[in-house]
Amino acid sequence: MEALDSYHMMLSLAESFSTPFVIKAIIKLGIPNILAKSDKPIHVDEICTILQAATGQAHNSEIVRRLMQSLCRKNIFEEQPAGVFGHNSLSRWLIDGTPKSFASLFLLTTSEAGQAAWHHLHELALEGTSSSTSAFAKAHGKSIFEFAANDPVFADLWFGFLNSFGHIIINGVLEGYDGFQSVAQVLVDVGGGTGLSVSKIVQAFPHIKGVNFDLPHTIASGTQNFPGVEHIAGDMFESVPKGDAIYMQKVLHNWNDEKAKAVLKNCYNALPVGGKIIIVDHIFDPHQKTVIDQDLGMLVFTGGKQRSASEWRELLASQGFSNVNFKPLPAVKFQAVIEAFK
């Protein structure tokens, strides 16, 4: 019996790769959004009729039913009664075009470019010292950031993912962290992407002037005009704009320690004496499956890592920062604000 149980467990693991691709198919068909527009669950035949009216192309109701049922068995969507599908609390995260949608993440990780990276994961273990690259770079010959700069379709997925998670995280930060009030004037968001996070901070604390700092191609194509926010293009590995405080949301986990130290050194030089750095990132816990999975994701896509509290202290101290404080964010599980001073 034990051998049979382990057999079925391993079989399930081998087939578990299919779920993200089924979710991708459902998103590509537009079914989460169709169900979101209805005030009640819809039969699969009606779903296909709506799809045909929208696209002018007939849809196979049997295939759609099988896809939906496979997700229902994983508690994604609900079937009631047979062939009638509706949303549940989990599937609502797949509605595309909403601020908190996970649709862009599934489309990003299941893209051909994203999937190719995982085939090179073992190569990182063949390097004699700590890897300075990512499986994505092994697969494509360039970092994910460079790849996005030259592939508009991939860039749309990338920015969509950053915006979706950015909404969730910055709302959790504003709810759980009270340290922005003490920022004298200028807050520089290093690696701020579209500028969404710093704009929300400025909106909540109007005395702050926000600076969104990111790579030239991001500033050129990915930013929006936000009141009170100035966009500045540059390279954080070369220098960082001066400010009274520096904010970094989910940036340093993209890089190994050597590169993270280079960024922190530039941040230190950009701050006045008494200025502070505000980092929003994971606190690594080896007993948490979600954090372990996300750590592997960093290894594959960026070459970065999730860090424990002691690793964060050591990293910040190596570049002169002191008085390191950790403020967990109850609204964003496994994340914290890491505050340190020059």
UniProtKB/TrEMBL annotation:
Keyword field: Methyltransferase, S-adenosyl-L-methionine, Transferase
Transmembrane segments: none
Domain O-methyltransferase C-terminal: 118-322
Chain ranges of the O-methyltransferase dimerisation domain: 12-95
List of catalytic residues: H253 (proton acceptor)
Pfam families per UniProt: Dimerisation (PF08100), Methyltransf_2 (PF00891)
GO molecular function: O-methyltransferase activity; protein dimerization activity; S-adenosylmethionine-dependent methyltransferase activity
Alphabetized InterPro entries for the sequence: COMT-like, COMT_C, COMT_dimerisation, SAM-dependent_MTases_sf, WH-like_DNA-bd_sf, WH_DNA-bd_sf
Highest taxon of source: Eukaryota
GO biological process, one term: methylation
Protein name (Swiss-Prot/TrEMBL): O-methyltransferase domain-containing protein
Organism from which the protein derives: Selaginella moellendorffii (Spikemoss)
